[in-house]
C-alpha cells in the first residue's frame, strides 16, 4: 500500500495560497518599497473608512437628537391639547418626525456606503497610480495629522 501523497501544482487551493503570499511577500529587488506601498495603501483605506464611520455616526446622532427634541415638543402639546383635532395634529406631527428621521438615517447610511465604495475604489487603483498618489500624500501629511483620533481627541482630515 502506497501512503505517499503528492500535491499537484495546479491545485486551486495551492494556487490561491501562492497568489496571497505573492501579494504580501513579493519577490524581487523592490520588495521593501512595494510592501511599504501596499501597507500605506491599506492604512489610507482604513483611515478613510474610519473618517467615514465617524462622519456617519455624527450625522445619525444629530438626526436622532433632533427627532427626539421634536417628538418631546409634540408630546408637550398633547398635555395642553383639549380638542380631538389638536390630538390628531400632534399625532400626525409625531409620525412625520419619525418618518423624516428614518429617511435622514437612510440617507446617512447611503452616504456612508458610497464613501466606503469610493475608498475601496481608490485602494484598488493600479499600483503605478497608487505609488504616485501615496508619495504625494506622504509628503503633504504632517506627522501630527497622521495620529489616531484617540491620541488627538478629534477626527483627522481626509485629503
Shape: rod-shaped
Order of helices and strands: HHHHH
Average residue pLDDT: 76
* Helicity, as a percent range: over 70%
Q: Helix segment count?
A: 5
Whole-number radius of gyration?
A: 27 Å
Low-confidence stretches: 137-159
Q: How much β-strand is present in the residues?
A: under 5%
Instruction: Calculate the terminal CA-CA distance, rounded to whole Å.
Output: 65 Å
**How many DSSP-defined strands?**
0
Main beta sheet, described? none
Structural class given helices, strands, pairing? mainly alpha
- Oligomeric assembly: single chain
Describe the fold and architecture.
With 159 residues, the protein is mainly α. It has a domain at 31-124. The chain contains five helices and no strands. It has helices spanning 12-24, 31-80, 84-123, 127-140, 149-152. Helix 2 (31-80) packs antiparallel against helix 3 (84-123). The model is unreliable at 137-159 (pLDDT under 50).
